[in-house]
Design brief:
- The protein is mostly helical.
- Helix 1 runs antiparallel to helix 2.
- The relative contact order is 0.04.
- The model has no long low-confidence stretch (mean pLDDT about 80).
Length: about 170
Amino acid sequence: MMLSLKLPLAFLAALLLLMGAALFGIQQLNQALGEYETSVAQSYAQERKAATMLQDFKVQVQEWKNVLLRGKDSAQRERYWAAFQKQERIVVQDASQLLDEAAELIAKASADTASQAATLSLIVMLAVCAASVVGALLFSRSVVRPIGQAVEVSQAVAKGDLTVAPLGRAR
């Protein structure tokens, strides 16, 4: 292959590689932004649920105070005790929902981390393979080129041209 073809092809290959890396970077950035938006929305929703649970707990504490302070009369005590138990069920329900959502988020984060680790491993393997191919090509060129030059000199000598200078490298 002629040098006038090799150089433009090499620049084209480098340009395509650079463009591929840029597109990959942009895709990763968009993915990270999407994950950030989802994370912020989830954190906000969890904060709102925790605030609601806190408010329900405060009402439950107030109902308990009502039982203690106003519970001398059995009718009032039963009324306040029923209100306390109702608030207790609400707080337990809110807490279990928050715990379930936290468990789901932890499981999702673990799965995402595993997926990222697998992707990173694949990228590293591909990079090592590419580096091996490049290294093999460079090594084979460093061996084949001097052998090809030696063959040219030996063919010239075989044809009777003794004016051909042997190729040798000074070290």
